[in-house]
Amino acid sequence: MDEISLDPTSPEFTARRAEARKALDALDPAKNLEMRGGAADDPLRRDWFEAVYARAQNDPARVPWANLAPHPLTKAWVGAQVKGIAGLRALDVGCGLGDNAECLAEAGAEVTAFDLVEAAVEWAKRRFPRTTVDYRAGDLFAPPADWRGKFALVHECYTLQALSAPLLPKALAELSSFLAPGGKLLIVARARGEDAEAEGPPWPLPPSIFTEARRQGLKPLSIEDIEATADVGRRHWRALLGRADEP
């Protein structure tokens, strides 16, 4: 590949991303009306996610969610932990190219990170050859049995919003199942009003997601409704949840 900009703020990077996004939308059964008939056979859109990484050809600009840095809301939360997260066993869900997982690891957590797409996992390993993160390919809906009740911190950034509404209850139940006693789930996602039109994917999450979380064994400990800023261009939730069976 010729020399290209890897600065996500550069016009060149932005242009490559826009070009790739247009092509990827045309392949996405969730966006392409002509392809929706086959979407029921692939509810996780695995084929589409695999196509994203295959078509990227090692150019992160062509992976729409790859900004080569931790999400600002994740990074700020990790940095604000007065007691720290050093030594905590943490799980990063939908790790992509690894930036959020590495942020947790740099803070001292013992991190396992997984993604639905093997190519994403291998790319993350190449980017961070000296990492302490245990990167794996995996499916949120078919996790290893030994993950149940094992993690003090579970981090989910942009995975829930990539799922259609019928999958959200099961996804929340799976996230809840990973928490050890006293464990916490950190959710970072785009937000919308309850009655706002949800065009996607991604599908911004409405406030009722936290009502559903309660039904799936989770209780909100803090919910931040964050308006668009220079760092975060859209309204977001940053929410910390714990196990509902704990006081």
Written overview of the protein:
- Residues 91-183 form the Methyltransferase domain.
- Keywords: Methyltransferase, S-adenosyl-L-methionine, Transferase.
- With 247 residues, the chain is of the alpha/beta class.
- It has two domains: 11-62, no CATH class; 72-243, 3-Layer(aba) Sandwich (Rossmann fold), CATH 3.40.50.
- It has helices at residues 11-27, 46-56, 72-79, 99-106, 118-127, 168-177, 208-215, and strands at 89-93, 110-115, 134-137, 151-157, 179-190, 218-226, 236-243.
- α6 (168-177) crosses α7 (208-215).
- It is globular, with a radius of gyration of 18 Å.
- The N and C termini lie far apart (55 Å).
The top-level CATH class of the largest domain is: Alpha Beta
Note the run of SSEs as H and E.
Answer: HHHEHEHEEHEHEE
- For this structure, the CATH topology of the largest domain is Rossmann fold
Q: Output the structural class.
A: alpha/beta
User: Which spans of ≥5 residues are poorly predicted at pLDDT below 50?
Assistant: none
**What is the strand tally?**
7
Biggest sheet layout: 7 strands, mixed
- How large is the share of residues in beta strands? 15-25%
Write the CATH homologous superfamily of the largest domain: Vaccinia Virus protein VP39
Inertia-based shape:
globular
